[in-house]
Design goal:
With 160 residues, the protein is of the alpha/beta class. The chain is built from six helices and five strands. The longest helix is centred in the middle third of the chain and has 17 residues. It is an enzyme of class 2 (transferase).
């Protein structure tokens, strides 16, 4: 049986915290699909296509990781892809409450798809895409927070 996990997020942009979860997930599952979803409550800096390309570049060393996008419900997407697991990262207790609500709703919609939480590596526990964008906007060096390709993309976005 092919163990397939969906690692969903807005990834605007992908950070080393996201990459930590994706890399560790790729060691547990036969296949991991990193799925870009648009969070309606956020106005993204990067388009879905740009985010997909940045993730593809950042994960190219992981042969069992693919990148996709969806604008529907996560649980429908997981069902459509025949995934058994939704893989989510947790940074702190503050993430848990929000994630628990989403997981409970997903479980109500389809109880056959499990959600697996992984604690992010401690060195990334403070890291979020929002923080990265904020400091990059002021020309701060973000190369220890995001892959080089993302740091360059942020530099280019904020040149304008």
């Amino acid at each position: 049986m092919n163990r397939l996990a969906i690692c969903p997020g807005s990834f605007d942009p992908i950070t080393f915290g996201h990459l930590d979860i994706i890399e560790r997930g790729s060691k547990i599952f036969d296949q991991v699909i990193v799925a870009v979803f648009n969070n309606q409550s956020k106005s993204p800096l990067f388009s879905v296509e740009e985010r997909k390309e940045l993730i593809k570049e950042a994960t190219k060393h992981l042969p069992n990781v693919t990148v996709d996008a969806s604008d529907g419900l996560l649980i429908d997407y997981a069902y459509e892809k025949n995934a058994q697991v939704i893989l989510r990262g947790l940074r702190a207790v503050s993430d848990f409450e929000y994630e628990m609500q989403i997981t409970s709703m997903n479980r109500k919609l389809d109880s056959k798809i499990e959600t697996l939480f992984m604690m992010t590596n401690n060195q990334y526990s403070f890291l979020s895409s929002s923080i990265v964008k904020e400091v990059a906007k002021y020309k701060a060096d973000v190369t220890d927070l995001v892959p080089v390709v993302v740091a360059e993309a942020l530099k280019n976005k904020f040149k304008k």
